[in-house]
Write the structure tokens for this entry.
Amino acid sequence: MLSLRAVNHYYGSQHILWNLSLDLPPGECTCVLGLPGMGKTTLVNCIAGFQKVESGGIFWQEASGPPQDLLTLTPPLRAAMGIGYVPQDKRIFSQMTVEENLQIAMRATHEGHSAVGSAIFDLMPDLWPLRQVKGAAMSEDDQYQLALASALINNPKLLILDEPTRGMGQGFMHKFGECLLRLNRELGLTVLLAEQHLPFIRRVADKFCLLHRGRNVAQGNVSQLDTRLLEQFMTPDAAP
């Protein structure tokens, strides 16, 4: 579904992503993990189109069509192709209601005004009683549910989540994990997580890609994420 080939990214003169290659198989949950500052957020922003790729390619391929290089497409066009994205800052409209936020999300990929259907509330029932509540009046957990609903409302084929568990309480993290498992394993949605909370990763992900200083230093099934790798790349001594 999505393939990265030798992707390089720079902040000014600083080389952030180094010849990074990665494949996201359809219907699986892949986690990009690593310590803070190792390139996780930069990577997902490059895929979503919010950061420039200096060289390399990011290719999107449907089952019945040829691969298409995403680097020629803006973030809205990538969203219209089927890439949903929830960034760390959620990017909801705080002075608009839940329903208004969802309507705006639908307009991003559909012309004209569209009514918010019941399917999104069936998936995320906690939002139903809040649909006339403004984003600013919601809890952090409910704001995240709204950001997730805004990404899901256009039925994406790939869902990208940047550090989703950051700041979550354990209760909501469990509920969110259940929702993610349903999306991935029951509904077949392909998922890419940028995450560093290891128990959550082991619970929801099928595959992993471990970043260290912008390089893909290990990848495979989550069952292969062993003590040796974690001690080498996921301890403070591994930081640059």
